[in-house]
Design goal:
Shape: elongated
Strand content: under 5%
Order of helices and strands: HHHHHHHHHHHH
Mean pLDDT: 84
Number of strands: 0
CATH class: Mainly Alpha
Oligomer: single chain
Structural class: mainly alpha
Number of domains: 1
Largest sheet: none
Low-confidence stretches: 1-26
Distance between the termini: 55 Å
CATH architecture: Orthogonal Bundle
């Protein structure tokens, strides 16, 4: 009777797990790349416009009155001969700066507020939810118009008022994220090794809750660009006469009937492009988060 002895020769392990390639794990959605690229261009323009424009933005009679776009004046001139390209270029510094300040202020304040009430709960959470309901009961643009009319048209007042409107959404989102994750294993492990409550909150929970907040910040930035433009169009933005896209559109509104379309078109195009780019960033962050979870 013959005995079959198994071969002692080592065979390659066929069930070795394959790691995902670094290229696939670092892949970002096209919408995020496109939006970030457009916002980056606007950021560069905002920095350059703070130091240089082809003509002084507020200087009249830089060319013929109501002249259409030419090589000397790429976006044409308005009723007083001011260069539309220089004014649109300079307004980028104002509108981008206001948008970044508003979103940054609302994001930081809303994250801190929502994280604290979501982590501790109790009466502070109940009072916060009632206060947010009161804040959301007013139409956003109407509330901004009323408060700015009462406070004034200083750029700081505009930033504070516009940042106040989306604050409840940031608070609710941060609160929901913290309430969901504060009982997860990584938070419980942090408590077991002796982390203090605030250490668990700000070193573990908040960093793991930023993706939805950043995605909403991109969408909110799109709304801020449009709202700042609307306030400027209504004469409730920064001081009249300043280089700002909304006020430029309002100044050229009557000229559209006469065929001088360029006075409104180029500032409106800037608002559309920047708002669309921020919206693409928000969608891209959401898509990247979904792909990461798969």
């Amino acid at each position: 009777m013959s005995v079959v002895v198994p071969s002692l020769r080592r065979r390659p392990f066929a069930l070795k797990a394959e790691r995902p390639s670094r290229a696939s794990s670092a892949r970002w959605p096209l919408s995020l790349k496109l939006g970030a690229g457009v916002v980056g261009v606007f950021g560069v323009i905002a920095l350059v416009s703070a130091f240089w424009t082809p003509y002084p933005p507020m200087a009249p009679a830089t060319g013929a009155f109501l002249a259409p776009p030419t090589w000397a004046h790429l976006f044409g001139t308005d009723a007083v001969g001011a260069d539309i390209f220089s004014r649109t270029f300079a307004a980028t510094h104002t509108d981008v700066g206001i948008t970044v300040a508003v979103v940054g202020l609302a994001l930081v304040a809303g994250t801190l507020w929502g994280s604290l009430v979501g982590f501790y709960g109790g009466w502070a959470d109940a009072v916060t939810m009632r206060a947010l309901q009161v804040m959301n009961s007013f139409p956003a643009l109407l509330l901004a118009m009323l408060v700015i009319s009462a406070m004034g048209r200083d750029i700081l007042d505009v930033i504070l008022v516009v940042a106040l409107i989306p604050l409840p959404d940031y608070v609710r989102l941060a609160r929901a994220e913290i309430m969901t994750k504060k009982t997860w294993q990584f938070a419980e492990s942090a408590r077991m090794v002796g982390r203090r409550p605030l250490g668990v909150l700000f070193r573990h929970l908040v960093p793991n809750s930023t993706r939805p907040l950043l995605a909403y910040a991109g969408i909110n930035a799109s709304w801020v660009v449009a709202t700042v433009g609307a306030l400027g169009f209504l004469g409730l933005g920064i001081q009249p006469g300043s280089a700002e896209w909304g006020s430029m559109i309002a100044g050229g509104e009557s000229a559209i009937v006469a065929g001088q379309w360029w006075i409104c078109f180029f500032p409106g195009l800037a608002i559309f492009l920047l708002a669309s780019a921020f919206h693409l960033i928000g969608d891209g962050i959401t898509d990247a988060d979904i792909n990461r979870r798969r």
